[in-house]
Design brief:
The protein is an all-alpha fold. It is built from eleven helices and no strands. It has helices at residues 3-10, 12-23, 30-53, 63-66, 69-78, 97-119, 124-127, 131-134, 141-150, 157-178, 180-189. Helix 2 packs parallel to helix 10, helix 3 (30-53) packs antiparallel against helix 5 and helix 3 packs antiparallel against helix 10. The longest helix has 24 residues, at 30-53.
Length: 190
């Protein structure tokens, strides 16, 4: 087996949880897509800052191309949304940074289908706010990342797995905090 396959198998339950958590966001409506972008911003923005501070660019290939902060900030501004409060980022072992990036690349893969959903919206405002979902979809980032991951020493696997799980938990928490149904219930209770 390869490190990538081992990581995929060991995080399969987390992938399913992420899919479930974000499937409840109606990406064809302004409220649903806004909540989706807000949840992603609450997780991705502090996470990318944390990874950059941990010198991820020295460990993971093409990090400068992989970041999606600017695209996400553009989309928030396009829809007139504020930058949300950040989800707390746990300490990630520097040896596991590649596992953190693994989840970000999985989310980039998921963005293809999400972009197709947004494209079906009758609301043109949403179409102008899809840089985050479309960012670098034309580049072979998954292939280059997978090749890099498979070259990693097997002794690093526990750190990679822990980091992947930590990042998944960050996105799950953000999805829970910003889920449209939760926000609606909060507003109705007020």
């Amino acid at each position: 087996m390869t490190t990538r396959i081992d990581l995929k198998l060991a995080t399969a339950d987390r992938h399913e949880a992420l899919d479930q958590a974000f499937s409840g966001f109606a990406l064809t409506t302004l409220s649903g897509y806004s909540a989706f972008l807000t949840a992603h911003a609450a997780a991705l923005l502090p996470l990318e800052a944390h990874l950059a501070a941990a010198d991820v660019q020295r460990k993971v290939p093409d990090w400068a191309v992989r970041t999606r902060k600017a695209a996400l900030l553009h989309d928030l501004a396009q829809l007139g949304l504020p930058v949300p409060a950040a989800v707390e980022i746990p300490a990630i072992d520097p040896e596991g940074l590649g596992g953190a990036v693994y989840i970000l690349e999985i989310l980039r893969q998921s963005a293809r289908g999400q972009l197709r959903q947004v494209a079906t919206s009758a609301d043109e405002r949403l179409h102008a706010a899809t840089r985050y979902l479309a960012e670098h979809q034309d580049l072979p980032l998954w292939n280059s990342y997978s090749a890099w991951l498979d070259e990693q020493d097997a002794a690093r696997f526990p750190a990679l797995l822990t980091a992947a799980r930590q990042v998944t938990d960050v996105f799950l928490l953000a999805a829970q905090r910003h889920h449209p149904e939760r926000l609606l219930a909060t507003m109705q209770a007020a």
